[in-house]
Amino acid sequence: MKTVMKRVLVGIALACLTxxxxxxxxxxxxxxxxxxxxxxxxxxxxxxxxTTLEELALPDIPDDENGAFLYRQAFERLDALSEKHKAEWxxxxxxxxxxxxxxxPEKKNTITNLVLCSADFSxxxxxxxxASLMQCAFLSKEDYGxxxxxxxxxxxxxxxxxxxxxxxxxAQLEAENGQIDAALRTVLTNIRAAKCLSNEPFIFSQIxxxxxxxxxxxxxEEVLEHRQGSISVYQSLVDEIRGERASNLTKxxxxxxxxxxxxxxxxxxxxxxxxxxxxxIEGLVWFVRWSEGxxxxxxxxxxxxxxxxxxxxxxxxxxxxxQSMYELFLMAGKQRWxxxxxxxxxxxxxxxxxxxxxxxxxxVSDHYSRTHDSEARLDARLGTAEIALALRIYxxxxxxxxxxxxxxxxxxxxxxxxDPYTGKDFLYNPKGLNILIYSVGPxxxxxxxxxxxxxxxxxxxxxxxxxxxx
Length: 470
Fold this sequence. Notes:
Strand content: under 5%
Number of helices: 19
Largest sheet: 3 strands, antiparallel
Shape: globular
Radius of gyration: 25 Å
Strand order of the largest sheet: 1-2-3
Distance between the termini: 58 Å
Order of helices and strands: HHHHHHHHHHHHHHHHHHHEEE
């Protein structure tokens, strides 16, 4: 879109993966502002929340130490491979659309030899393994100074997903061919590779990181079902997973949102000044209708904008946005099981905001708060994965699984991970041929290890890691 208004709004929507929220039931009167933009910025700074590029303190990584250069080489090679092997691409597990289990043995052999033995594929695997051990920054400091409201984050994020899937295919095929330690090391590379987004403090990037972790963990659960691996490789995975579990991805994602997207957007809107056109006002109405499904809300916002003028209107929008981001950031710093009630209160307060006000924060805050939920789910998977690996180590040493998870401490791991939904220990059922380690999940109740697979969002289930006894 060519206008300032639409370009900014679409940029924010893309960066934040905006999702729809229900129409609000809001008060009609507009109270006087309780603070100014300057006061809100001062409050953010006092809390250590970046409001300038300098405060964001982006790392300066020399080119020869920056894994992004190797990742980009891998992206190019992967594109060339998909073109060169177009006929086989659809049959590669995790990458193609054809179910691996449905393939005849001869086709499986062809694909296995291609992925594990081809020099072209091996070159990509080697690049990804080397890059996963390096610091990484795909965006330079100069990139952040260019049209910051619409930094294009998508290209390398999509490519990273393709690389993650290719590594998952390699791990699966290695495991099926009895190369269990090689498969586990490939999973280890995948988990490390997700951390290449550690220096991108945007919600969008951290959501992709969660997705990459999710693929790697699903792959790990599959690999663990084949046979016992060596204790040293298990331990390396435990250490890597514990480090990822300690990362607060929601908080990291919020660090740069104000600097890179929020403040530049409001600056652009104020610069438009009295020259804001009818088309741009209609863009605002379109945005509100799209994000909230409420045409009256958009019409009222247009009326207020005309009455107050652009400068006053956008300064109030900015004040509400900064005030809300401050609250979201503080919540993100707390343990996940402590956030749920505060998030509910936060959503309730936003819904009681005056009609036609707080449009920007209302359109993105639901997505920000849902990111908390996504990370809790990931943390549950990471916690159960760490325990599953610790159980494998215990069994390698003792020949059987422990009767209780507490037996893993301190011999195998220094402490047990906590269920992110309750702050208590994960649940453990060591009976039968399939051992269950699970979180109670978002409904906060024990559903006795019923998996979410095949369940609808409103149905009861636990977040389960299933481990074969043998």
